[in-house]
Every structure is written in structure tokens, then in C-alpha cells.
Amino acid sequence: MLALIQRVTRASVAVEGRTVGEIGPGLLALVGVQPGDGPAQVEKMAKKLLGYRVFADDAGKMNRSLSDTGGGLLLVSQFTLAADTGSGMRPSFSTAAPPEEAELRFNQLVETCRARHARRVETGRFGAHMVVSLVNDGPVTFLLRS
Asked: Can you name a GO cellular component term (predicted)?
């Protein structure tokens, strides 16, 4: 499981012109599920998303997590994140989980994060064409692997 996280001042996702998920300050996570990802990868990714220290403390150092700050979390499924781009000029998606498996694991990640994070956890719509808008704060962007 992969997640490209971005620290944001705000982010939203729209489907067919309608906003389906929106947060203020927090993290936007684009999530790619790989074949064989299971409950252990979901658990590890949820811990990382909520505990990764990318927010400034009083000294200005990245020392606080989403759980510490109480910020929002916007989770957006993105199968292209798991693409194989190692050769040629066209990505291969054989390294991305099949849609049924990916949707199951993505939904498990959403539920795990919602159960553990008292603040807002929003999502896009799995499998839909989505328009993601964000204001990256920093910019701060990390690729997490479970």
C-alpha cells in the first residue's frame, strides 16, 4: 500500500461538479493499493497517516502528527500511484491491485482511520473521475509505504 501525503491548508475532491469530500488544515492522502495488500498493510498505513510527524511544533520543527494537531484527513483512492513506470514511455498497471481488492482495502483504511481519528476523515469516490483541489502547505509532500 502506498500513500502520497501532502500537508495542506485545505483540500477537496469533486465528482461530476459536486464536492464529495473537503477538509481544512491537515493531510491529503492519495492512496494506491497493490496486489497482496491485506489487513497488516492497512493497519500500518493507518498508523503512519495518523502518526507521521509533518506538522511544526513550537520550535518550527516537523515534530507533530495529524493526531497531535487534530487536522482533517482526506483519503483519495488513486490506482495510478501503484503503476509500474520502470520501463518504456507508458505505465503498466499490473502492479496495482484489481478494483475489487483495492476497494475493499481502501474502505478498510478509511474505517480504521475514522475509528482512530476524532477529527474529520473525508474521502473521494472510489473508481470515479475525481477533481482534486488543494493548497499544499510548505510544500510538504511524502511518499509512504506500508
From this structure: cytoplasm
pLDDT at residue number 6 = 98
Decide if 145 is inside a domain.
Answer: no
Closest by CA to 106, choosing from 128, 84, 137, 139, is 128
**33-64: pLDDT as tens digits:** 999 999 999 999 999 999 999 999 999 999 99
Which positions are annotated as active-site residues? 78-80
- List pLDDT tens digits, range 81-123: 999 999 899 999 999 999 999 999 999 999 999 999 988 999 9
User: Would you state the cell numbers that stand for residue 100, as one nine-digit string?
Assistant: 475489487
* Residue 100 domain-assigned (yes or no): yes
Segments forming the whole domain that contains residue 9? 2-140
Omega of the bond leading into 139 within 30 degrees of 0 (cis): yes
Q: Which three cell numbers stand for residue 80?
A: 495510478
| Number of structural domains the chain divides into | 1
Domain of residue 12, CATH code:
3.50.80.10
Strand positions, DSSP E, the chain: 2-15, 18-23, 26-32, 55-56, 62-64, 72-77, 121-123, 131-145
